[in-house]
Design goal:
352 residues; alpha/beta; Dna Ligase, domain 1; Nucleotidyltransferase, domain 5; six-stranded mixed beta sheet; five-stranded mixed beta sheet; 9 helices; globular
Length: 352
């Protein structure tokens, strides 16, 4: 029997959800999953700040509107999280069953966290095995999110009348959906540029090896242009896409050109430093390509700038690759697919 899963991404500027249908065995046994429905509803400025819900009633209303207009087939959702208050770190543990890992994790990581362990939601994602001095070991990533961050998101979803079945890290969702097909056996740097947060994942053979969440995104560029030209945000968004990065423009646009350069250069440098750190710790497995996703990836010239700074080829992510689209999904969404990687990947996680 086909199984339908809905991934819900609460972003800084939109709520987006994608319903994906898999065969009975999940993604591994579904060569061509079907995107059944997709929808998005914009959020007013300030409803979500720094990746966290700030105005619960406003966000809940937007989610209800999303379900009403898209007509998803059910109300069970996989919810994504990802902001500066979510910690992702390398962790090596003695080899043990998953249930034992879960029970022992609070004691293993208490000294690694900037918050009390009882105030955090913990998870461990195994990425490989090794042999240590005391026997077999598990290499992986520790994920620690503050409970109030997780609860704020789940409570707003429940207030909208939905049922959160699972909370997943957006970075892991990104990895699942973008490291399929030709990228499945490569070492790939995924860079998802959202409105306020840029997620960087280095994945080798489909396994996330490093995750960083940078506190900057496309809306920061828009605000810098608005300030430089003294124009409203809506006009600044259009101006930003006209100006781009690295192009010549008339003198009256010079303040905006400089503003864009300042924000994007800081972001690109942070991404490049992430790659440098990974190369210093894992020299045998450096990325050979950068895949850009997220709404902020559409800034003209940004891909070329990132490629030059990091000395790697850059391609725009195509998360629909290998998927079928139902008649409920407008064909125009194909041109917008770079922004759908996270909600699609959230659906892939629970269906695995």
């Amino acid at each position: 029997m086909p199984r339908s899963v809905i991934g819900l991404d609460i972003g800084s500027t939109h709520v987006r959800a994608a319903e994906v249908e898999f065969a009975g065995g999940g993604p591994a046994r579904t060569p061509s999953p079907q995107v059944v429905r997709f929808g998005e509803v914009p959020l007013p400025h300030g409803a979500v700040r720094d990746g966290e819900v700030a105005e619960a009633s406003t966000v809940a209303t937007a989610i209800r509107q999303l379900w009403a207009q898209t007509k998803f087939s059910h109300k069970d959702v996989v919810l994504g999280i990802g902001n500066q208050r979510v910690i992702v770190r390398d962790l090596q543990l003695p080899f043990m069953p998953p249930a034992q890992i879960r029970s022992s994790l609070p004691f293993q990581v208490a000294d690694m966290l900037p918050v009390a362990v009882e105030d955090a939601v913990l998870d461990f994602v195994a990425t490989g095995t090794a042999t240590g001095e005391t026997g077999p070991m598990l290499n992986g990533l520790l994920v620690a999110a503050t409970k109030d961050t997780v609860h704020a998101n789940t409570e707003v979803v429940e207030a909208a009348g939905l049922r959160p079945m699972m909370v997943d890290l957006g970075a892991f969702a990104l990895t699942r959906v973008m490291t399929r097909g030709d990228l499945a056996q490569r070492t790939v740097a995924l860079v998802d540029i959202g409105a306020r947060v840029t997620t960087v994942v280095i994945a080798a053979q489909g396994q996330p090896k490093l995750v960083r969440m940078l506190p900057s995104g496309g809306h920061d560029v828009t605000e810098s242009v608005a300030g430089a030209l003294q124009i409203p945000l809506g006009e600044a968004e259009n101006a930003k896409r006209h100006i781009g990065v690295g192009f010549a423009h008339s003198p009256e646009l010079a303040p905006a050109v400089q503003a864009i350069q300042t924000v994007t250069s800081a972001l690109v440098e942070a991404v490049r430093n992430t790659f440098v750190y990974y190369a210093s710790t894992t020299p045998a497995s450096t990325p050979d390509i950068i895949v850009l996703t997220g709404g902020g990836s559409q800034l003209p010239g940004l891909g070329q700038y990132l490629s030059s700074a990091c000395r790697l080829p850059v391609t725009l992510g195509q998360p629909f690759t290998g998927m079928k689209l139902s008649s409920h999904v407008p064909t125009a969404v194909v041109d917008h697919q770079h922004a759908l990687a996270v909600p699609l990947g959230l659906a892939f996680g629970v269906a695995a």
